[in-house]
């Protein structure tokens, strides 16, 4: 597509969130030459015409380092392509430090508070039997206790990130002709940087987590917050959701509503809502917002852990009933990761 300030018929849609940018945002773009990046999902256009760059998650960065390490077994490379969990293919710079060894630094885009910005991922690859083995080394955190999805001692590598890593490595194997490889992945500064993250509170020790549901880092600065708030203000029926999983299913369940991803900023966006509001998504952030003390006396560190206990159902029902009594016009819908509705204060969909 050709992008120009005078092209009144252009349509720009964010391939990550599915949001179609309003016409006046497009025509008011301060840097129209960057609109192709917005269309590709590599940047975000805000209501004031500013274009903000998305960054790469720790998962995407790790995948780039691993792919480069495998490719370097044959010849050096300066960059590699990585297909992110959101389906967007990006080209990420890498540094080959030797045969079978490569590094990649995390690019944070325009996210000003990314504590992992610039952190170095290092991968060392060696040919092996017909399989892919990725060993999490120094600087990658491990769980200190069992969770519903991870056992104690397992590395803190999210499922989408591991799939991105192995998929990228498989592409490298296809190019190189190798049948298998063993990779040692490490983050030299991981243990130090992890102290600035939530990992210590989550029982993850020894380093950072390798995460990324979409593979891209959102530039959650003041401009983007204003964009979110303006959408909430102008919507007659809005669904506020806390994450990508919730956003995806919100569009399925509420096609006639404006679905807005607000992350943990639930309170700030609720104060701006003027129409019908539904709070929709996975239980974690929503339950801790409507009842900050929901974990008190439970012996659990997270809502996810609480969900495995018998006390979860009565606690969540009590929290929803109490909140509904205070705010009868607010609808709350909780879902599972598979999109199944587990709780709905209205009990039916409209």
Describe the 3D structure.
This protein has 3 domains: 1-53, no CATH class; 56-216, CbiD-like; 221-344, CbiD-like domains (Rossmann fold). Helix content is 29%, strand content 23%. The chain has helices at 23-27, 35-39, 58-71, 159-176, 190-194, 222-234, 244-253, 266-270, 283-290, 303-306, 312-326; strands at residues 43-45, 51-53, 55-56, 79-83, 89-93, 95-98, 101-105, 120-127, 132-136, 139-140, 142-143, 181-186, 204-205, 207-208, 216-217, 237-241, 258-261, 276-281, 331-335, 341-344. The protein has a 5-stranded mixed beta sheet with strand order 6-7-8-12-9, covered by helices on one side. A 5-stranded mixed beta sheet has the order 17-16-18-19-20, with helices on both faces. A hairpin with a 5-residue loop joins strand 1 (43-45) and strand 2. Helix 3 packs parallel to helix 4 (159-176). The two termini are 38 Å apart. The relative contact order is 0.11.
């Amino acid at each position: 597509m050709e992008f120009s300030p005078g092209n009144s018929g252009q349509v720009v849609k964010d391939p990550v969130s599915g949001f179609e940018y309003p016409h006046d945002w497009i025509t008011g773009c301060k840097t129209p030459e960057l609109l192709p990046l917005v269309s590709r999902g590599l940047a975000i256009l805000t209501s004031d015409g500013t274009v903000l760059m998305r960054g790469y998650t720790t998962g995407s960065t790790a995948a780039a380092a691993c792919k480069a390490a495998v490719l370097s077994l044959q010849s050096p490379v300066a960059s590699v392509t990585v297909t992110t969990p959101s389906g967007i293919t990006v080209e990420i710079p890498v540094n080959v430090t030797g045969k079978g060894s490569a590094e990649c630094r995390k690019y944070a885009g325009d996210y000003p508070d990314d504590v992992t910005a610039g952190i170095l991922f290092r991968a060392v690859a060696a040919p092996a039997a017909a399989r892919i083995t990725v060993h999490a080394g120094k600087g990658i955190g491990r769980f200190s206790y069992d969770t519903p999805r991870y056992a104690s001692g397992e590395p803190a590598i999210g499922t989408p990130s591991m799939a991105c890593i192995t998929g990228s490595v498989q592409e490298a194997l296809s190019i190189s002709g190798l049948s298998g490889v063993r990779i040692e992945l490490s983050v030299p500064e991981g243990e130090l940087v992890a102290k600035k993250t939530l990992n210590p509170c989550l029982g993850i020790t020894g380093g950072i987590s390798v995460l990324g549901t979409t593979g891209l880092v959102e530039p959650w600065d003041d401009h983007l917050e204003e964009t979110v708030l303006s959408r909430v203000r102008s919507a007659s029926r809005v669904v506020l959701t806390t994450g990508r999983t919730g956003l995806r299913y919100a569009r399925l369940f509420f096609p006639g509503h404006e679905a807005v991803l607000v992350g943990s900023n639930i309170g700030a966006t609720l104060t701006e809502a003027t129409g019908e509001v539904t709070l929709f998504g996975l239980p974690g952030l929503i339950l801790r917002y409507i009842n900050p003390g929901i974990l008190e006396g439970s012996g659990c560190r997270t809502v996810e852990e609480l969900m495995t206990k018998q006390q979860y159902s009565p606690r969540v029902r009590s929290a929803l009933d109490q909140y509904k009594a205070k705010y009868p016009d607010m609808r709350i819908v909780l879902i599972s990761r598979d999109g199944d509705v587990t709780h709905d204060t209205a009990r039916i969909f409209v």
